[in-house]
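Bumping with the actual sequence this time:
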Amino acid sequence: MPINWIAALKLIPWSDVVQATPTVVQGAKDLWSRTKRSKAKAVSSDDPEHVEVGSLAHLTQRVEQLESEQLEVSALINTLAEQNARLVAALDNLRTRMKMFYAVCVLLVLGGVALWLR
């Protein structure tokens, strides 16, 4: 079973993932800042004198609710993008350590063979 996971991990183009991570993080941060700006504009443009009773008040309440949900979703996307960046960095570190481990194993095998042939 571990061989299947190793094969699956080898199929992933890690260099592409690592290169795309900063773009994903930057896109999430841009989305977060745009959402904050649009919320600030919506709050500043509210004028309580023009609010009508009935369906308009209901629609206004619904829009405010949707904006708050949008902010929560944007925060979640931002958090997930940052976690993805940390995950990719950790996997890249692990890949580098595994390469070093394989190199040490090869050197140990070669040293063992050299000692055995002596």
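The tokens above came from a reply further down the thread. The chain has a mean pLDDT of 77.
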